[in-house]
Each structure stands twice: as structure tokens, then as C-alpha cells.
Amino acid sequence: MSSYYPRTKDLTRTRKSLTDSPPSSPSPTDKNFRHDRLSRLDSSGTESTTDKSLGRTSSYTRRETRLERLNRQEQDATTKDYKKMYEDALYENEKLKSRLQDSKQELAKIRSQLERVTQRHDRISERSSVLESEKREKQALEKRVSDMEEELKVLTELKSDNQRLKDENGALIRVISKLSK
Question: What pTM was estimated for this model as a whole?
């Protein structure tokens, strides 16, 4: 417990409460003094009317009432401190809950954005795979068309050769028929 007198360089003696002092065995005079003191106090802890009327207020009684008052002030201060600490803790909890809620909402938003991006990427990759297959098909068709064009050129040449051969054959048949006559 703190001292009741301020400690200075000149004054090194401090007062302590009874709880701060080491336990000692009570002497017979201390027992009598306590008995006298207790007999002077009534049940409420104040001096009896005879002591008040005689003006006999012991310094010990004044000290006890002063200690009780200080203890009550300290208890009030600690309960106020506890109440303030409780209110601070509640306020901090509310702040943390709101931050947690905001973080959860942000996480949900980011997850949905990630899902959309993933779906879009899947669609793009599907499109690219479709585009690649379409490109392959187109290249195959172009190759087939160019092959057919080549075959068509060969076919037209063959037709023209065939027509020429038919004409020659017809001319030869006429020549042979004229010679055989």
C-alpha cells in the first residue's frame, strides 16, 4: 500500500497499514488496548456517545476511518477501472467484429471474382481449343481443296488428251477406210 505521507529526502519514515507490517504476537497491553478500543466502538464502527461527549477520539480511530475511506475510494476507483476496462474491451470487440465482417465480405467478393475469372478463362481456353480444332479443320479442308484443284487440272488435261485421241482415232479410221476401198 502506498504511504500516507509523501517521501522526501529529509523524511524517510513512511506509514504502512496493518496488513503491510509483519505479524507479531500481541502483547498483553495490546490486547487490553484493543479491548478498550472495541468496547468504545458500537456496532457501526463509530465512537460511542460517551466518548463523543467526552471528546475522546483516539488517533487510532481517526486513522481507521481514514483507512476505510481510502479503501472505499480505491475500491470505487478499481471498480470504475474495471468498468472502463470492460467497456474498452467491449468497444474493441465490436471493432474487431466489424473488421471481421468486412473481411468476410471482402473475401466473398474476391472469391466470386476469382470464380468469374476462372470461368472466363475456361471459356477462353475452350474457345481457343475450339479455334484450334477449327483451324485444323480449315487447314485440312484447304489442303483437300488444293488437292482437288490439282486433280481437276489433271482431269481436264486427261479430258483434253482423251478428246485429242478420239479425234485422232476418228481420223485414222477414216484414212483406213479410204485405203481399204
Answer: 0.34
Closest CA relative to residue 46, chosen from 73, 64, 67: 64
62 and 47 Cβ atoms separated by less than 8 Å: no
In angstroms, the CA 170 to CA 175 distance is 9
Q: How many contiguous H segments (helices) and E segments (strands) does the chain have?
A: 3, 0
- Scan for cell 490486547, then name that residue: 31
- Classify burial at 58, counting beta carbons within 10 Å of its beta carbon; exposed 0-12, middle 13-18, buried 19 or more: middle
Torsion of CA 130, 131, 135, 136, to 10 degrees: -30
By C-alpha distance, which of 22, 27, 58 is closest to 40?
58
Per the CB < 8 A criterion, the answer to whether 16 and 3 are in contact is yes
Greatest alpha-carbon pair distance for the chain in Å reads 188
Spans of the chain, pLDDT less than 70: 1-57, 78-79
User: Is there a contact between 13 and 20 (Cβ–Cβ < 8 Å)?
Assistant: no
Per residue in 28-65, pLDDT (tens digit) is 555 555 555 555 554 445 545 555 544 556 788 888 88
What Cα–Cα distance (Å) separates residue 177 from each residue in 9, 92, 135, 160, 180?
A: 160, 123, 61, 26, 5
